[in-house]
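for the recovery benchmark. C-alpha cells below, seq after
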C-alpha cells in the first residue's frame, strides 16, 4: 500500500501538481494528515481542469500571459506616478486634533449623549475599578 501511494505521488508530480501541494506518503498510510491529503487531491483536480479535463472539483489555473514592451515605452513609465501609489491632491488636515487633545466619544456638534461632567468615564475608555498599586513579593 505504501509503495502504491508513493507511485501515485510520483505520478501527480509528473502530471504537474506543485511539490508544496503534495502530501507525504505516511500522511495517507497512517491516516494522519487529512488536510494535506485533501489539499493535494484538490490541486490534482485543478491541474486536470487546467489541462482541459471535465472535472467537477478544483479551479482552472491561470495561464501565463507574456507581455513585451518597447524600450521607449518602458522609459516613459519611469516618470509617471501610478495611481496605485495614491495621491495627496486635495488633502488637508481639516478635522485633525492636536496631540494630547481630549478625544470626544460623542458628536459634540449634535449635542446628544454628552457626558454629565468631566468625571464621567465611558465604558469605551475602560475602567480602573479594582486596580491597586499593591505589589506581590515586595522586596524588602
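predicted aa per position
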Amino acid at each position: 500500500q505504501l509503495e502504491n501511494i508513493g507511485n501515485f505521488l510520483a505520478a501527480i508530480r509528473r502530471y504537474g501538481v506543485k511539490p508544496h501541494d503534495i502530501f507525504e506518503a505516511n500522511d495517507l498510510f497512517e491516516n494522519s494528515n487529512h488536510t494535506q491529503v485533501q489539499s493535494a487531491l484538490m490541486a490534482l483536480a485543478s491541474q486536470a481542469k487546467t489541462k482541459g479535463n471535465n472535472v467537477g472539483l478544483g479551479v482552472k489555473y491561470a495561464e501565463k500571459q507574456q507581455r513585451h514592451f518597447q524600450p521607449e515605452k518602458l522609459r516613459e513609465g519611469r516618470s509617471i506616478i501610478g495611481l496605485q501609489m495614491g495621491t495627496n491632491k486635495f488633502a488637508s488636515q481639516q478635522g485633525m486634533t492636536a496631540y494630547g487633545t481630549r478625544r470626544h466619544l460623542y458628536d459634540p456638534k449634535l449635542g446628544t449623549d454628552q457626558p454629565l461632567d468631566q468625571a464621567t468615564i465611558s465604558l469605551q475608555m475602560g475602567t480602573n475599578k479594582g486596580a491597586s498599586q499593591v505589589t506581590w513579593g515586595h522586596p524588602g
